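Protein record

Derive tokens from sequence
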Amino acid sequence: MTRHFVRTAILFVLGGVCWCGGKPICRAAETKSESAREPVAVGTFPENEASVVRLPDGSLQVFYNQRGEYVGSVTSRDDGRTWSAPRKEFAVAGETAHAVQVLLDKRQELQVYYLVIQRGGRKIGVDLFLDLWQATTSDGRTRWNEPRMVYHGAVGALRGLAVTKSGRIVIPFSTADPTRKAGPPIGYFYTTSIASDDDGATWQVSPSRLTAPCTDGYNGGNYGAVEPTIVELRDGRMWMLIRTQTGRMYESFSSDQGSTWRDAVPSRFYGSNSPAMLRRLNDGRLLVVWNNAQVGPKHEGQGVYGGRDALHAALSDDDGRTWRGYREVYRDPTRHGEGVELRNDRGTAYSDAQQAGDGWIVLATGQGEGRRAILRFHPDWLLETHREDDFSDGLAGWHAQQEVGPAQRFFRRRRYGAQLVKHPDDPKRNVLCVAKRDEEPGAGAMWNFPQAARGELQLRVRVGDDFRGGTIALTDRLFLPIDDAASLGWVRLRVERGVGQSQAAAADTIRLTPNRWHDVRLRWDTTASNSTEACRVSLDGGPGPPLTAHAGAPSGLSYLSLRCTADEVDPQGLLIERVAVDVEP
């Protein structure tokens, strides 16, 4: 959604400073690699919502809209490893929005689509419009033709388009219905598409109007089905994923190359009111990139930004029937509160990607200054089955943010909640401390691993003499670490201070001897028919308590959630020395 015309748009904001024991600490540089194939930032671009294209000579271009001035690009001729300085491609007329999408048509010419704003008033679809414009190249991409309008309406941000095997261009988008309002039952936006069989010279508008439900009290802009992305499947159908406010991406299918669409229904993918991206890789696998996250609750009745702290990706080798990965490919570098301004655009959403000639994925994503990045990663990194962390790279791979203070303009100040402290036995090392240090709720932390229906998580943990309680939980998506829903998880293990296991401990509880390290293992199976067999716990090599899984087994788990549950100040809290996970593919 563009802030120029969506009056109910969410003001996604991060904020605050980082503290440790009352003294500021510095965020660790996010540079250490887990493997040679993991995502690495290789460049940036000047404006939000960029789009990536691979040219016939193998070079890559990232296009962006310098709003109201021109569409520009940055170029790489070495598979995305290095990038040129920005350059102007063609001028735009009038006020424009962030959105831009680029494709290479069947003639091997470039086509760029963007939105031009017409302001006659403030009523969307009546006297306020975002029109869809097209600019094309000719003569082997050596010159740009005069841009022209191809659709008049109140178009939402452009997030995906496709050129089918037959050469048809299909552009899905959302548009406003001025007879409806934000909120229940379906908001004021619906999703549709246009298609061209003559390289964009003429267009046909689909009669389909895809919608998604809206509910009262939603924490964010409640406007309906928006910002779709599409891909052509092997059987000729087209598959669309749609951003909604339901907690899931919705999906729709077309059997006539985008001329008409089936009613949208919930997909398998959770979504935080953020758009997705679909791409067919060179070897036929499908790549999806999206925010596998949950928007948190309002604070004291006021809306609060959430759900865009990390961007996730997954692969399918059976045309979307099953998926692997669900890994974080990019985390908002300001998620813990550093360097934040109170502006509309923030977070890690709005991605676009292409596969380079060497097989690596080149992904452009991020919102706002300091958050935009061009990344390179190998798609098989998503399929790895092991991950571990001993905090030698700081909190680079963690979510430890805590919101504090009142909510204003969809913003709460952020700080580090969980934080690094000196190892009690080795001052040259750090451990994670999940504690309650003041009147704010106890801290939390979340850590992503490759999603799987079966696997084993290993933790080395320690508590002190005054430990007042915590939880270890496993879940299938990212939450704000202090969201109570995160600490519930699909399975949850309570941690108390004590001496080993005792009859007094609850069935889902372990008791740890203070001031010594303990090894905790959780082996899960989300396919287990008996909920009491879904997760088995081991404490220091011996059997631990049984855990009962919550109803509604997910297709797999991909997050560890740690939480301090103390009601009173507990400055030591739960210490974590190391965490590792192994999953079954």
